[in-house]
Amino acid sequence: MTDKARDVTLLGLGNILLSDDGVGVHVARQLASSPDSPPGLRAIDGGNLGFRLMDVLKQSDSVLIVDAARLDAAPGAMRVLERRELCGHVARGRRMSAHEAGLLDLLTLAQIDGWTPRRLALLGIEPQRIDWGEQLSETLARQLPLACRAAIDIVLSWQAAA
User: Fold this and answer.
1) Residue-wise pLDDT tens digits, 26-58
2) Which strands make up the sheet holding 78-82, listed edge to edge?
3) For the whole prediction, is pTM greater than 0.70?
4) Mapping DSSP to helix (H, G, I), strand (E, B) and coil, where does residue 36 land?
5) What's the burial of 50, exposed, middle or buried (CB within 10 Å: 0-12/13-18/19+)?
6) CA 57 to chain centre
7) Residue of 79, 59, 60 lying closest to 70 (CA atoms)
8) With 50 as the cut, is the pLDDT of residue 25 above it?
9) Which tens digit of pLDDT belongs to each residue from 73-117?
10) Where are the domains of the chain?
11) Can you give the pLDDT at residue 50?
12) What pairing do the DSSP bridges indicate for beta strands 8-13 and 41-47?
């Protein structure tokens, strides 16, 4: 097994000025500085997603995206969509995240450029509030450690299967 096969990029998306919309960024920032993060995990603050992330993605064998997502569930609920489900969901036109359109464009452009990750998934987290504010809602602030743990568990399972 090569080291590259164990490398995982966690891309946290969102706008931290819109309260819970920034939950993906909060997860990425926390994992970037956490001693609990597994070796080979590269946590990136992707912010409001732009094509500037193309080079980051193209260097990645496996990509886990963390973002606020409308799951039709209670605030703080989490759901993992693996590549097939994620791509099918986006293709059907039902948007879970404000960042899906940009993400789909970015992934499509990367694929045209010859990059396809071995593993790709979205960890979606149901927001409680998306409104002006730099803090997560109390509900999502309480869920942040669980979201980080969920992301670590996904990374570890991918690394074990590499």
Assistant:
1) 999 999 999 999 999 999 998 876 677 787 777
2) 41-47, 8-13, 62-68, 119-125, 78-82
3) yes
4) coil
5) exposed
6) 12
7) 79
8) yes
9) 999 999 999 987 876 655 554 455 554 546 767 777 777 887 778
10) 3-161
11) 67
12) parallel
Sole residue written with tokens 């919309």:
21
Which value, in Å, is the radius of gyration of the alpha carbons in the chain?
A: 15
| Four-residue CA torsion sign, 101, 104, 106, 109 | negative
**By the 8 A CB rule, do 155 and 38 touch?**
yes
Q: Which of 7, 8, 10, 6 is nearest to 122 (CA)?
A: 10
Strand 78-82 to 62-68 pairing? unpaired
Q: Which helix (H) or strand (E) holds 110?
A: helix 100-112
Supply 115's token pair.
């990059």
In CATH, 3-161 is 3.40.50.720: no
